[in-house]
Amino acid sequence: MTVFHLKVIALVTMVIDHTGAALFPYQEFFVLRVIGRVAFPIFVYLVAEGFRHTKSPGWFLARLGAFAIISEPFFDWTLRRADIPWGVDFFNNTNIFYTLFLGGLAITLYKIADEKMWLLTPLPVVAAAWLARWFSTDYAAYGVVFIFAMYWFKDFNKRVAAMVLLCLWQQRWVVQAALRYWLLDVPYARAVDTLELMLIPATLVGVVLVLLYNGKRGPGLKWFFYAAYPAHLAVLLLIRLNYF
After folding, report:
1. Other beta carbons within 10 Å of 242
2. DSSP letter at 182?
3. I need a labelling partner for 186 at 20 to 30 A (CA). Which of 122, 135, 139, 144 fits?
4. Residue 46: Cβ-neighbour burial (10 angstroms; 0-12, 13-18, 19+)
């Protein structure tokens, strides 16, 4: 499985997820959100791979930052249901490109610090994670740490093990809720339904797909995958405004 195949799967599952969030924000369509859990681990892995192999980390960062800004209005209007056109907030509850940018920034600054100022190597990750929390990015500090971990672990087996642990950490609330209800009998604890439990294996599907990665790029279409993020949000917004 090439980078191209992974990008297509991540894009499709993300669109399914956002369709559920934008058009069907009700529990009976939660299955769409479950399917969407596949996307994030793949995007994280591919961004880390990109920074591992790119010859122009500055341009890579610039692209991520530019699309963070371009995508934010569509993200706010479509998924946050902000007022059109003045409800856009570039500093709060921000889109996934902010997280990818900050994760890439942590990697880039780490590489500089590791070569020249090794005592400062933890600082870029801490600073980027703090910024992710400050901007309330999608996946916040967790997302930044996930991206950096995928870069920092050079051994593939260790990288996959970290990926599994971080995916399980993402869905820890499901396990906690289930334990409270089924084993600990905590008063007022609510039952966890089957779809919510499926969040865990759905997230781990992304790990399985990464295991099938053969290290090849496949067809490029780099700009298509960048543009697809704001474009699909714009389409969902038009559908919601006209039919929902």
Report:
1. 7
2. I
3. 139
4. buried
Structure tokens given for 71 = 């995508």
In the block, residue with structure tokens 């970290």: 162
**Do residues 121 and 77 touch, judged by C-beta distance below 8 A?**
no
Residue with tokens 């499709």: 12
Closest residue by Cα to residue 225 from 28, 29, 50? 50
Question: Which residue matches tokens 């890579």?
Answer: 60
Report d(CA 233, CA 227) in Å as an integer. Answer: 10
The two structure tokens encoding residue 130: 């703090």
Query: In residues, how long is the chain?
Result: 244
The model scores a pTM over 0.70:
yes
Vertex 181, ends 178 and 182: CA angle to 5°? 80
Question: For residue range 159-175, what is the model confidence (pLDDT) as tens digits?
Answer: 999 999 999 999 888 87
> Can you tell me which residue has the tokens 């195949």?
5
Q: Which residues contact 71 (CB under 8 A, 6 or more apart)?
A: 95, 97, 229, 230, 233
Within the chain, residue ranges assigned H as helices are 3-23, 30-36, 39-53, 57-78, 96-116, 122-134, 140-152, 156-170, 172-178, 194-197, 199-211, 222-243
Hey, how many other C-beta atoms are within 10 angstroms of the C-beta on 115? 9
Task: Show the tokens assigned to 117.
Answer: 């100022």
DSSP state of 222: H
